[in-house]
Amino acid sequence: MRIIDRYILKSIITIFIGMVVTFAFLFILIDTFSNLQDFIAKKVSFETIAQYYISFLPMIIVNTSTMACLMSVLFTYSTLSSHNEIVAIRTSGMNFWQVTRPAIIFTLMVSAGVFLVNECFVPRSSLMNQEIRDAQIKVTLAEKAHGLPIIKDLSLYGLKRRLFFIDTFDPNTNVLNGISIIGHDRNQNMTEKIVALKGIWTGIAWKFLDCQITSYKSSLPNVPGEVKVYPEKLMDIKETPKDFLKQRLDVTAMNIRQLSEYIHRFSDSGAVKAINNLKVDLFQKIALPLRNIVIVLAGLPFVLVNSSKRKAATFASIGVALIISFIYYVLDAVGLALGKGGGLPDWICAFIAPLTFLIIGLTAIKTKF
Known about the structure:
By secondary structure, the chain is α+β, with helices and mostly antiparallel strands. Helix content is 60%, strand content 17%.
């Protein structure tokens, strides 16, 4: 590796580590203040609080790595520009790719690291964090006197080999909306399909409204048989609202392989909306490693051309990083919303932001260099 590459890479790594530590500290500080009443009410020990925030670290690294990577790269090259070092390097005959090679190599390494952390550590730490929060930190509904958030796209594999897909579940009123239930036998052949507009917990059993029950004969696997329609019907379902609240599917607690297997296993269940949303989440996980490299490529050309603005180099790099990150996350959120709303194919929506920024970055490089 060339001396200039080591010099640039050392600066980028130092700033990156400092940014990640700063972001982690700010996150823990803000979260501590927001949960302070719960800590006091539950008399949570310091050891439990430490375990709780240690379990947050993989998620913090994944969520802050993009901003930390972008700011460390842009700040380093802005500083080089302010001291005319970029001019000297360019004068020696090095092109854009040779000048930015340390940043691109570092960004690729960070992207690979983020992918491994997200796949190997985030699922486990997410479950650990949720268990600690539910068991030792979280104050009950009666204690807080506040409503719980509505759960969307709930999936549950329950008793009697039934797979539940629920559009929304309100744990405050114990009401289910958009219900699809698929029953299977020991050989995974479909035995029944239950579809209902709404389900209300009576305190003893579930009452389904606008319910349709389709039975399947064992002699003809997966071939629909008798169909019965009920304006309302008390259901023989053993799962209680507490079971739905406790066993909800958390996509962050699954890696690509687990989520892919889950989707494949229940792809023929008939719950089209829930399966589509899970596919969108799957492609988002696949596209995650591209985020760092495309954002850096989009930001570098705008920093390197501002070598004459020495005094404003630091503020320029921070401003460019904030603007690029904001636009990226907005575009990414719009794409995911369109995918989950059915406006775009599931495999396209997760790649809208990466592809857009890749095109912007390559166009800016070609135009300015």
